[in-house]
Design a protein that fits this description.
The complex is a heterodimer.
Chain A (H helix, E strand, L loop, with lengths): L27 H20 L4 H5 L7 H6 L8 H10 L6 H21 L3 H18 L6 H15 L8 H6 L8 H24 L2 H5 L1 H7 L18 H14 L1 H4 L6 H19 L2 H15 L29
Helix pairs in contact in A: 1-5, 1-7, 1-15, 5-6, 6-7, 7-15, 9-12, 9-15, 11-12, 14-15
Chain B lengths: L1 H31 L10 H4 L1 H10 L16 E7 L2 E3 L6 H15 L14 H22 L5 E10 L3 H5 L7 E11 L6
Antiparallel strand pairs in B: 1-2, 1-3, 3-4
Classes of the chains: A mainly alpha, B alpha+beta.
Chain lengths: 325, 189
């Protein structure tokens, strides 16, 4: 399955060699990451708008100053930010800070998605996302943590280097000199995340006998496309538990080798689709799918408008990404 | 530039690695001995600059979602003047967050048999304050003339996979864990 260069060098950016994936990379993975992370974060923020006051205002279930009282002070909350501004003799009310942040966050995400003032928009979006999440830290769950991580990568990676308004404005794209290194960074972080997630599961009995997945599916208020109870007499839950453990612990190896990568990626996408469709963790699932596709699928695609070079005879019919590396 | 990038990348990944090594080790110790006390992170990672860095980059998080086991979820339910009230929102996303809130403030009550809850008086007072705030908001939303409100936290229970295989009916039940009674008085301004 080993091939020479299948993908012509991108015209807009210098091809880079990734330390992990040996071939030239399609720079569109950076734009893919930027647009999708911004879109998911925007939809996630939109999803809480009907109940925004219940979460953030003094008409909510837990008042902002009570939430703030148990915060560890390693970032601002809306309350502490308002107090800091007040101490500078700026006459800003809590509602004023809340309203400003409520408009500024989606504005930053829209700019980030469009790639206009990309770096500044990414930094703004990260700080505002943290401000919102830290302000309701008792309500925080996994999707929030991964949104922070994804926005951090939008800050440090050159995500505005292609398919962005910044490029259209300048009339040329920036040189991508360390693209392979950036991709390695994202891949290494994902490998650590999945590996430790798998290790933490295999320690407990319930992931090894299927009870954990059964219990997760029957937790209160989790959305499920349809009931999977009819599978109880089958080994489905046992297999699903072990498949989850193996996919996660084996992620660093499975995603590193060209032969196993497409199957591992398909398995992971299936796992996250399952989490989204049967546990209702839509935003978490969507974000993880985007991070995986950005790290392992999009970089291996041929650049837009260019067909991949003809593969040698034994390679025809193979999944394209299997032929890389 | 490249050296700086290597330094940032290496430092970042090392941070993530150490945080997760400690988190997984503590989880493993808890699995072996539920009374085991968590091993704290190295002093360097507990220093304010490292804490700020971890917060700003998301590197502070462990990734043990749903590990070691899946936690039993519960519901907050209130009764005021004969009306059943539930703190929930209009969107599914908010209802997920309400479950997280209820779990966060009741985690200390869910410890293995024989293990003392890791509560300090201050923490217990804070959790009680949060629940009182939820109760007050529910009371205000209800607009009930009744000044009394009872708030329950019930664990939602469903037969295990093994029980269902043995023929037990798959029916949800609620097991009361906490009950708090409040009386609200209107204060004149």
């Amino acid at each position: 399955m080993q091939t020479d260069v299948l993908v012509p060098a991108p015209t807009q950016a210098r091809p880079a060699k990734a330390p992990v994936a040996g071939g030239p990379l399609n720079a569109a993975w950076l734009a893919f990451l930027r647009v999708n992370v911004a879109s998911i974060a925007l939809l996630h923020f939109w999803a809480i708008q009907p109940d925004f006051d219940l979460l953030f205002s003094y008409h909510g279930y837990v008042y902002p100053d009570i939430l703030d009282a148990s915060h560890d002070r390693f970032f601002w909350t809306l309350t502490s930010l308002q107090q800091a501004l007040a101490s500078l003799r700026l006459p800003v009310s809590y509602e004023g800070v809340l309203t400003a942040a409520r408009w500024a966050y989606p504005a930053c995400l829209l700019l980030l998605g469009a790639g206009l003032l990309t770096r500044a928009a990414a930094v703004g979006a990260l700080l505002l996302q943290l401000l919102f999440v830290q302000s309701i830290h008792l309500y925080q769950y996994g999707a929030d943590a991964f949104t922070t991580i994804a926005l951090f990568y939008c800050c440090v990676l050159p995500v505005g280097s292609s398919y962005s308004l910044d490029v259209a404005w300048r009339g040329r794209s920036a040189a991508l000199t360390h693209q392979g290194l950036f991709l390695f960074w994202l891949r290494a972080h994902l490998s650590l995340a999945y590996f430790f997630s798998g290790v933490d599961k295999v320690v407990g009995d319930t992931w090894r006998n299927g009870e954990a997945i059964w219990k997760a599916l029957h937790s209160h208020a989790y959305f499920s496309l349809f009931s999977l109870d009819f599978l109880a007499p089958t080994p489905f839950f046992w297999l699903a538990g072990w498949a989850t453990i193996l996919l996660e612990i084996g992620y660093p190896l499975g995603m590193s080798y060209a032969r196993s990568r497409p199957w591992w990626l398909l398995g992971l996408l299936g796992m996250h689709l399952f989490i989204g469709l049967f546990m209702g963790l839509f935003f978490f699932s969507a974000l993880m799918i985007v991070l995986n596709l950005a790290a392992y699928y999009v970089p291996s695609l041929p650049p837009a408008g260019q067909a991949p070079a003809r593969a040698s005879e034994p390679e025809r019919g193979a999944i394209y990404i299997a032929t890389r590396q | 530039m490249k050296k700086l990038l290597y330094l940032l990348m290496g430092g970042h990944l090392a941070y993530v690695l150490v945080v997760n090594l400690y988190a997984s080790y503590n989880l493993w110790r808890t699995a072996q001995q539920p009374t085991a006390v968590d091993v704290p992170l190295p002093r360097l990672l507990l220093s304010p600059p490292a804490r700020y860095y971890g917060r700003l980059t998301g590197a502070e998080h462990g990734y043990g979602f749903f590990g070691l086991n899946v936690r039993s979820n519960g519901t907050l339910l209130a009764d005021c003047g004969g009306r059943k009230l539930e703190p929930t929102g209009r969107s599914f996303e908010t209802s997920l967050r309400m479950i997280t809130l209820a779990n966060t403030v009741t985690d200390d009550w869910l410890t293995p048999t024989g293990v003392a809850p890791p509560r300090t008086a201050l923490r217990a007072d804070y959790q009680a304050l949060v629940l009182r705030n939820v109760a007050l908001t529910l009371h205000q939303q209800a607009g009930s003339p009744d000044t009394a409100l009872v708030l329950h936290y019930n664990i939602l229970s469903f037969p295990s996979l093994a029980e269902v295989r043995r023929g037990k009916a798959g029916v949800y039940t609620q097991r009361p864990l906490l009950t708090a009674r409040y009386t609200f008085r209107r204060h004149a301004n």
